[in-house]
Design a protein that fits this description.
The chain is mainly α. The protein contains three helices and no strands. Helix 1 crosses helix 2. The longest helix has 31 residues. It is elongated and about 65 Å long.
Length: 76
């Protein structure tokens, strides 16, 4: 299995990681693995679902071509 070294981590971030690990009954290293897995593996699926929902929500019945034509004709 590969190893990953992360440098230049703020003390506050390390403390937060240790607290979260303790709350979840894991070592800091195990918590770090879980965070990476959940964000990179599970998070990619969540992102596509969130993106699809956002596209659906932003869909409009307004014809933007008509607005552009009207604006163009007004300027001409």
């Amino acid at each position: 299995m590969a190893q990953l070294t992360v440098r230049n981590i703020s003390p506050e971030l390390v403390t937060a990681l240790k607290h979260q690990a303790a709350n979840n009954g894991r070592s800091a290293e195990a918590e770090h693995r879980e965070i990476l897995r959940s964000v990179l593996i599970e998070g990619s699926e969540d992102f596509s679902i969130r993106a699809r929902k956002l596209r659906e929500r932003l869909r409009s019945s307004i014809d933007s071509a008509e607005i552009i034509r009207t604006d163009r004709d007004r300027i001409s």
